[in-house]
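Marked as duplicate of an earlier ticket. Keeping the data here for the record.
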Amino acid sequence: MSTPDEPWSWRAAVADLLARTRLAQPDELAAEVAAAVLPLGLQATIYLVDQEQRTLRPVPGPGAAEPGPIMPIEPIPVDASVAGRVFTTVSREPVPAGDGRPARLWMPLLDGTERLGVLELVVRGGAGPGDVDPGDEAFLAGCDLFGQLVGHLIATKVPYGDALLRVRRARRMSEASELLWQLLPPLTFVCHRAVVSAILEPCYDVGGDGFDYAADGPSLYFAIFDTAGHEMRAGLGTAVVMSAIRAARRAGEDLDALARAADRALEAYLPELRFTTAVLAHLDLDTGRMRYINAGHPPPLLVRDGRLVHGLTGGRRLPLGLGLDDPGREVGEQMLRRGDRILLYTDGIIEARDRDGTAFGVDRLAGLVQRDAGRLPAPETLRRLCHAALSHYDGPPADDATLMLVEWSYDAVRAMLPLA
């Protein structure tokens, strides 16, 4: 591999990519990434995970539409492939040269710690350094640097066009889903002391489910919502609730005031809607003190040392939209220990029923959380939990299914960092 003192290097490839993408449209990103590594004798292909997190789909670029041994035209399954293993474990995996195939390297594509997909680098030789060893540490360090930039560029370019969003979609999204996905924060957030991750299904036909979070200093706010009804009316209710709560939160108001802001907004703007159930929580990242309000929602679960401790049953009040005249202002409290996990969920998860009418249930959900505790990163835990619940349905899902996992844990943070 070339060094920084030679005419072409990873440093030069990064600088070239930055220059190439300054004015690039989203649909031009894959071509510019491929062009930036071509002088190194590499062929690059971006794969984005689909909305359901079941397949990795190639972003059109040079050769992406050409079937062949190097660039499969079909999406790659997440659960049965090397690329999928790289995505789920947030690791990189070199495939040495042999059996007639070029050497290649699969790398996770991340926006910070949000899993976007994978990057495939295939050693083509010729114009670049020639004999590259995908296991060489200097080569891998350059790949890591380049891959981090590609992940950030994907996240940066997405809002400016539809091409990258279309890659992730297998079918048309409903109007309500389009509205809610624009309001939601990224599915995963990681800071030095905590991990927050969420997943929402059915992603193309979301009704009134939603989630939110914000971290500032030692304060971590997180919430989950479920507005009664279906399709756009439910989506509008959740949009109004999230907007009202964000406005109050950014004005520095406390949890009870956030809930009452949502009450007032629903009454003022959507009086015909019935209500929104929700859990609003605040975690002090210095002390582990968690305060929460439960507005008619299923109680969150506390998992400690791989075991379900109990449901968080405090902080009860009427659902949002019904609480203006509610005299009760109870705020629940729970002291967390390092390593604790808080699982929030909507009733679409536990009420999934099979052909015999048996519900997925809280016990099954808790059992799966305990099984995966400490074994998988938070986003992968939720991906598997949600798919397990959806597979329990006899036919299409009857309701939205949303999960949110909050971990106050240094180990959970380390598990989210890319691994060799």
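See parent ticket for discussion. The mean pLDDT is 85.
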